[in-house]
């Protein structure tokens, strides 16, 4: 027959073993959880610093497509291997103050000739079709014909009457361009691919 003290001791040992096993199981779950969080943080850092970067639009020069305070992702990696095309919305360091960033649409490519006649843009002698510029955002500014140097891009905002763009600061050097706008993620009513 078992001593009552020994029975209590045995029950306590069993409880401690069960608690120890639960604790080890919980610690194992915690380690898996911590590992997954760590991997997620590292993957996010790589995506944000190398591939895509979230940015906030400040200003109304790209309305109606991009509104003030819209949040979007810019492609910082893949666009380096693709040609920049007319109509692309790009993000670049402002040529007169590289601490500032601007977002504008590419209108003319290296080697193109461009002039503006009372708000109408002509590239290589042909009028440029610009469905992204509503009539109410047009202006009447003119600009004499210029040839875009190699490695430079002529950019303009879609809200022409208030945009500070290549008409003011000249063509943008390729080295100042660091991303292409790809996707608006906030606000939800404007969510979608940048056009």
Task: Furnish the topology, listing elements before pairings.
Elements: H1 4-51, E1 52-56, E2 71-75, E3 89-93, E4 101-108, E5 113-117, E6 120-123, E7 126-127, E8 143-147, E9 152-156, H2 166-169, E10 172-173, E11 177-186, E12 192-193
Antiparallel strand pairs: 1-2, 2-11, 3-4, 3-11, 4-9, 5-6, 5-8, 6-7, 9-10, 11-12
Question: What would you say this structure looks like, in words?
Answer:
With 195 residues, the protein is α+β, with helices and mostly antiparallel strands. The N and C termini lie far apart (86 Å). The strands form 2 sheets. Strands 1, 2, 3, 4, 9, 10, 11 and 12 form an 8-stranded antiparallel sheet that branches. The chain has a 4-stranded antiparallel sheet with strand order 7-6-5-8, with no helix packed on it. The protein contains 2 helices and 12 strands. β3 (89-93) and β4 (101-108) form a beta hairpin. The chain folds into 2 domains: 1-52; 57-193, Umud Fragment, subunit A (Ribbon), CATH 2.10.109.
Give a quick set of tags describing it.
195 residues; alpha+beta; 4-stranded antiparallel β-sheet; Umud Fragment, subunit A
């Amino acid at each position: 027959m078992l001593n009552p003290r020994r029975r209590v001791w045995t029950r306590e040992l069993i409880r401690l073993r069960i608690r120890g096993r639960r604790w080890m199981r919980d610690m194992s779950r915690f380690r898996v959880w911590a590992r997954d969080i760590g991997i997620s943080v590292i993957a996010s850092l790589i995506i944000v610093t190398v591939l895509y970067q979230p940015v906030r639009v400040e200003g109304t020069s790209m309305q109606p497509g991009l509104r003030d305070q819209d949040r979007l992702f810019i492609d910082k990696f893949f666009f380096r291997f693709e040609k920049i095309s007319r109509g692309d919305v790009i993000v670049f360091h402002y040529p007169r103050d590289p601490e500032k960033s601007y977002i504008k649409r590419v209108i003319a490519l290296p080697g193109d000739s461009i002039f503006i006649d009372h708000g109408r843009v002509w590239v290589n002698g042909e009028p440029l079709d610009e469905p992204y510029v509503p009539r109410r955002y047009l202006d009447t500014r003119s600009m004499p014909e210029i040839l875009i140097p190699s490695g430079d891009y002529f950019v303009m905002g879609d809200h022409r009457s208030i945009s500070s763009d290549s008409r003011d600061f000249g063509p943008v050097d390729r080295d100042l361009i660091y991303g292409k706008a790809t996707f608006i993620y906030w606000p939800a009513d404007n969510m979608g691919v940048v056009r």
